[in-house]
Amino acid sequence: MAVTWRAVLLAALGIPVVLLVPMSGTVIVWAVLVVLACGVDAWLAASPREVAVRREVPASVRLGEPVRSTVTLTHVGGRRRLRAHVRDAWPPSAGATPGGDPGTGGRGAQTHPDRHAVDLAPGDARRVRTLLVPTRRGDLRGDRVTIRAWGPLGLAARQASVDVPTRLRVLPAFRSRRHLASRLARLRELDGRAAVQIRGAGTEFDSLREYVMGDDVRSIDWRASARRADVVVRTWRPERDRRVMIVLDTGRTSAVRVQDEPRLDAGIEAALLLSALAQHAGDRVELLAYDRRVRARVAGTSGPRLMPALADQLAGVTPALVETDWPGVVAQVRARMSQRALVVLLTTLEPVVVEHGLLDVVAGLADRHQVVVASVADPEVAELARGRADATAVFDAAAAERAGLERAAVAVRLRQRGAEVVEGLPDDLAPRLADTYLALKAAGRL
Amino acid sequence: MSTTDVHAGSHPAGVVGDGTTTRSRAAGRWRRLRVPLALVAALLVIGLLAALPEPRTSTTPLAPDNPGPTGARAVAQILGRHGVDVQYTRRFADVVAADAPGVTVAVLGESALGDAQVDALRGLGADLVLVGTPWTAEQVAGIRGGFGATSDAPRPARCDDPDARAAGTVVSTGALVAAPGQVGCFPSAGASVAYVVAQVDGRRVAALGSADLLTNDHLQTAGNAALALRVLGRGERLVWYLPSWDDPWDGTASDETLASTMPPWTGPLLWMLALVVVVAGVWRGRRFGRLVVEPLPVVVRAGETTRGRGRLYRRGRAHGHAAAALRAATASRCAARLGLPRSAAAPDVIDAVARATGRDAAGVEELLYGPPPTTDSALAQLAGRLDTLESEVHRS
Lengths: 446, 396
Known about the structure:
The structure holds two protein chains of two kinds. By secondary structure, chain A is an alpha/beta fold. Chain A contains 13 helices and 20 strands. Chain A has a six-stranded mixed beta sheet with strand order 17-16-15-18-19-20, with helices on both faces. In chain A, strands 1-11-10-5-7 form a five-stranded antiparallel beta sheet. Chain A has a four-stranded antiparallel beta sheet with strand order 2-4-8-6, with no helix packed on it. Chain B is α/β, with parallel strands linked by helices. Chain B folds into three domains: 20-54; 73-241, no CATH class; 314-395, no CATH class. Chain B contains 13 helices and 13 strands. Chain B has helices at residues 22-51, 73-81, 92-98, 115-122, 134-141, 162-167, 224-232, 266-285, 304-315, 319-337, 346-357, 361-369, 376-395, and strands at residues 9-11, 14-16, 85-89, 103-108, 127-131, 144-145, 155-156, 169-170, 176-177, 183-187, 193-200, 203-208, 237-241. In chain B, the strands form four sheets. In chain B, strands 3-13-4-5-12-11-10 form a seven-stranded mixed beta sheet, with helices on both faces. In chain B, strands 1-2 form a two-stranded antiparallel ribbon. Strand 2 of chain A pairs antiparallel with strand 2 (14-16) of chain B, so a sheet runs across the interface. Chain B: InterPro entries: DUF4350 (IPR025646).
């Protein structure tokens, strides 16, 4: 049961009446009249419980990209015409936006983009669409669909909310894929497919071919040249079928917000770019999201199925407010990686945390694997370090400088234990990590 | 009207209904509302039980509903039990409205009486009992006030008035002086009496010098009760008027009150407006489906620990620590820019910086490794100088 502004108007029409007949009885009679009119109107409305509701959304959408939620309403009831408003309710982070279904919103479509007007004869069906632009990664669950069926006078309505279970998986944005093209081009340069041949670009023997002007004379294979009339050079290519293990730290330090986004999201961006690059380079990628237990794992997937699998697994990963169990991480890596591999730890260079966790275990990992520690830096600290406005700002700047020195010291200690350290602002981390990967590959250190 | 299926129906075209029927919804509403309703009902019952058996009482002196020592509930209740209709009022308009021959109007106290009211009292047709109102008594009947007897000694009647003779003796501090032709009773040691009866304009005006003999406290003393009951209970009806400062009566508009100055439709109009407000509340208050909730992540700003450390530095006035951090950071950045290894010793850094900037080595050493500043301003100055040095290294 709900009433409209018309019911308020009807009640207000009693004001001139009470001026004409100034008695308390008038008010009572008018109140009864309003209640009766609303009751009869609601009684005459079509039942909102005799509407079949179906809601359809795509299985997944990238964060920040628009998607339409389509609600199909079928009037399965009796003779009455259904004039109703429908609310397709989604959580706030689904980001319902005006413009999903022009023409059905009517007034208020700007403020309530999830509401739609429908007018259905018995047996008819109608689709209404709500434009969603999700603002958070993860699984969005559609809430109830509420139908408010108006009576013929438009005074009152009957209302029912129907549970229509719907799930929309919001995948990571993968904004860093704009860096992919340039990195792939550099990968191809390494790969010997491009025109330029540089000796040392890779360590794996690829093939022999005829010498052309401009080739490095040091790459001439004299033994092969002796067998033939021509001078023959060796070409090289980067190693293939190496293994890459990306470990995403989802512990408490990943919950910290950098530029209004958890550190974890920057880590996910970096993981996605690196995976895409490594997959193109012919390496086998595995991913593990871990704090004290496994939050997500992608293993044994390759080729075109890798990136969708990664996005799907990473969609629901959220920071957990626990301390990361680094020995556990090492055990996981050992269990998965029997051969030498590139192990990328996407975490934070928080000096205290690193000293009590990562530092103890990184040497053990680096013995067998190439370890890269990638960390999200904070532009706010850099901002603080420049503060000179007053004494408070200078103290803050000193604190920021001290924190920076400590981070640098910890990075040095990590490097001493055999790990590569990559630090970057949220937007820079992904391309820097990709560059590190390419450099390692070019140097044959995978 | 109602769907008959209990579970949310499945239909080829989707989900039908919310799994409720008219009956289940009514049951649900009853389940939700029964506790609040029971509470409201219990409150009502408790309120009624508390309010019903206990008549209203007050603490106003001389009020007929005041059971305290200064009240007059005893005499009013005895009068009521003997068939006298006691009407208690604090508004003069009620006195005027009740005025009729045979009615007794008792006026208790005169401090709140205005001239207009005294004039109006003189013009009334009802019998008057003026209690503790010497000025009014003089205006109405020429009975003047005297100098009071303060003793507690019983005062015998010593007059021909039958009421006074029936009472015998009273104890009162009242002091009145009877004019010629009036009957004065219960004289004290002086010339004043406690009770005067006069006939004015064909009606009886009785004056009691003091109200003390009416009070619950003194009613049992001597013949006080007999006198009070006989004087007040002469007629079938008694108007018990206790003048009030809040009474705006001035004789010109006899029954003016706040309510009567308003047009007759005011009350109904207010009720109608209340109805409109209620309907508007229902209009705006009904939610279009429930509020959708969503778990939100914690927000921890990345710079918070750094700011916290800065605040600790400031609170501890750790100028030395702060300066050391700034110097070390500058030195390490300069060294990195000049291609020195991280392990470079201080003299090497000083040499390199001095060469790069063209400053003399002593100045650079003082700046990078000098004594710590001790004040806020010195620290800020040092920070500025370090910035300058660093920018010069950058330029070179």
